[in-house]
Task: structure prediction
Amino acid sequence: MSYILIPLLSVLPCALWLWYFYSRSIYKRPSLRLIAITFLLGGVATFVAFPLNILGQSLLRNYFGNGIWVRVLVLFLVVGPIEELCKLLAVTLYAYRRREFDEPLDGVIYSATAALGFAAIENVIYLSQNNPLLVFLRGPLSNPGHALFSSFWGLSLSRAKSAPNLVRQRFPIILRGWLMASLLHSVFDMLLLASERISIILFYVVIAALLALFFWVRKQIRFHRDTSPHREGTMLLPIINLCENCETKGIAGELCTQCGATIPAPPESSVCPVCSAINRAEANFCLRCGANLKLTAAENLDHRPHLISISTAGEERLACILNRDQILVGRTLNNDFVIDHPSVSKQHAQIAAVNGHHVITDIGSSNGTFINGQRITKATELTDGCEVRFGRARFVYRQNERS
Result:
């Protein structure tokens, strides 16, 4: 009977939590096939993490002994980092590479899916060695804990897809997410260990911390759901504010139609570090020049053909390396060059390498693709230094690095 009961009790709470994360996406349902495979890969990751945990624990205990502080050291240097890394690999080796991974919310959904697959197998191992009724403790604590911790590197995977397509740009983003997930995972395990040995009060601290983390992740889910590129069609969203002189509504940064005064930006707006244009507070790329609003320092350019944004002072900032025969440009994360801008369509344009040159083609975008201000209607060759505009996001094409 236990051969049926333990797997059922192990998978059931994970399945319920999986349904919760899966149902958060309302504008584009993730592929059930991809969800199932990611869940299974998360389960397989358990069998990779388990021997690595044993090996790491053995090395530390052989070197430092078997005291309580060694157990804490094991949590922070072995258990947390290894388990989060194995779950991360379960997503990056499959789901992250699929075209279905095309919006920021997918980072949370697929990371939670792999984490819950990991937790399901972990439950089987744990419950087979202990009282199966402990599932009522692990179900509301350890199982969602796995999913919530992994959401940090899941969101990092989404942010990395929006960054310039260079390893030196994307790897640090993912690394930071993994380190944060590992730290939270280790702290969670440490508090559970301390609650068993020191005070039951720490157990309530664990519950409070987990609830706080749940509400934070839920807030991230709501934001990315509400700003999903699948929610509605492409549209322009200028920032509207009142003129300080006559209180007439107008576009921030432009002249008032009534008195001619410059309409100020609202306090919560974001100013582009490259061209000083006013943007929405939640924007990632500049409305005028396409620069990444999250970057503050100049980026090193690549020797391969690339697209850049240029500041008014002549500073060049890398946007995309043209390192493939075909580069898809658009707003969703399954493009090669992701531009998070309201005037850019989900699938906007395509840049192809043809006989040593690059040719750009608009693929039915709402706001058009422009070369040096002229809207293109057919495949057009890019020339060194030409301005390329996708909707209202502007870039410059460089064939190679300039001295």
